[in-house]
Amino acid sequence: MSDLDLLTQSLARSVKHWRAVRGFTLDVLAARAGVSRGMLIQIEQARTNPSLGTVVKIGDALGVSITTLLDYEQGPKVRIVPAEQAVRLWHTEAGSYNRLLAGTEAPGPLEMWDWRLMPGESSTSDPHPAGTMELLHVTAGELTLTVDGVEHRVPAGASVSFEANLPHTYGNSGDVPTEMMMAVSVPPVT
Predict the structure, then answer these.
(1) Mapped to the 3 state alphabet, what secondary structure does the chain carry?
(2) How far apart are CA 187 and CA 1, in angstroms?
(3) Residue 178: which of 120, 102, 112, 135 has the closest Cα?
């Protein structure tokens, strides 16, 4: 079987799966994605190879990544992310950073982060979609977590969870680096 055939079949399985998870009818998904119902039927029956633009529209409408839609590995999914492939999305010259360690769809996006905040530094986050939860565990130093203008001190060894649909800031008011692990769960698109 060719790679194209594998991708076509994977896309068919994935679109059917995620449409069922989201509870979308063909008509609802077609309207959300701006793709015809007939095109969706052909995709779900693995009878067409849609353009990348069409796959992007369907992924956006379902709230899943293109990678998720086109993943044709079968069997139990185990994905190991080597340390050197962790994605650093924010850093400062003083040495603060965050790294996206891993992510998945479960049933909405779920991410795991590694953070380091140097003394006196902070990182502000815009509000996430309603229903987004963050779970943090401080492994060193002390985190000053500000949610909707209210400060919360989280010492090493302690954990905190909060609804992240409000403005929030991760800060280090201490004199030693703050290190923490963070999981972010975003609700599925409905």
Answers:
(1) CCHHHHHHHHHHHHHHHHHHHHCCCHHHHHHHHCCCHHHHHHHHCCCCCCCHHHHHHHHHHHCCCHHHHHCCCCCCCCCCCCHHHCEEEEECCCCCEEEEEEEEECCCEEEEEEEEECCCCEEEECCCCCCCEEEEEEEECEEEEEECCEEEEEECCCEEEEECCCCEEEECCCCCCEEEEEEEECCCCC
(2) 36
(3) 120
Asked whether the beta carbons of 143 and 120 are under 8 A apart, the reply is no
Question: What residues contact 72, with CB distance under 8 A and at least 6 apart?
Answer: 6, 7, 9, 10
Nearest to 186 by CA among 109, 111, 104, 103: 109
Each residue of 48-100: pLDDT tens digit?
Answer: 989 888 988 998 899 887 777 877 555 455 566 777 877 888 899 999 998 87
List Cα–Cα distances, 181 to 4, 134, 137, 147, in angstroms. 39, 10, 5, 18
Other CB atoms within 10 A of residue 90 CB = 11
Chain mean pLDDT for the chain: 87
Q: Distance between CA atoms of 165 and 129, rounded to whole angstroms?
A: 6
Q: pLDDT digits over 133-151, tens only?
A: 899 999 999 999 999 999 9
The structure tokens 């769809």 sit at 105
